[in-house]
Amino acid sequence: MKVHLVAVPFKSAKWFIVNVDRFAARHKITRSQVIKQAISEMLSNNIDVTNIDDRETLRGDKVLCTVKMRDEMLQKLDDYAMQHRLTRSETIRRAVLYYLSKHEKEDPPIRIRVEYLRI
Fold first, then answer.
1. Which helix (H) or strand (E) holds 14?
2. CA-CA distance, 64 to 21, in Å (whole number)?
3. Which of 7, 23, 59, 105 would you call most buried, defined as having the most Cβ atoms within 10 angstroms of its Cβ?
């Protein structure tokens, strides 16, 4: 059985994608898996992300990311975005923001020790 995947582009700030990558590395999954999990959790639990402020995710250097997803998931995402009068990029960013804020609380903070040596 062949699965038809569609590449879905969205804009975001570079620092936001770096945070998603750090989260993905901690959980030993890929960035795409984090984004897909965030979207599927938002859609399956019918979470309202319209009140989440995503303006910060556009400050700074911007990057264009793509995530491959199934046609069915893309259609549900587009329906959700139209129903809530959001763009697809806004919906993806807000879903990921919600997902990270929810799951970051479960993770203990990572401490990094940096030592400077004088030569």
1. helix 14-26
2. 15
3. 23
Confirm whether pTM is higher than 0.85.
Answer: no
Task: Break the chain into its structural domains and give their ranges.
Answer: 5-104
Residue 91 CB burial class (10 angstroms; 0-12, 13-18, ≥19): buried
HEC string of 63-111 equals EEEEEEEEHHHHHHHHHHHHHCCCCHHHHHHHHHHHHHHHHHCCCCCCC
Provide the 8-state DSSP code for 13. Answer: E
Helix (H, G, I), strand (E, B) or coil at 19: helix
Provide the pLDDT for residue 4.
85
Q: Name the burial class of residue 95, with classes exposed (0-12), middle (13-18) and buried (19+) by CB atoms within 10 angstroms of its CB.
A: buried
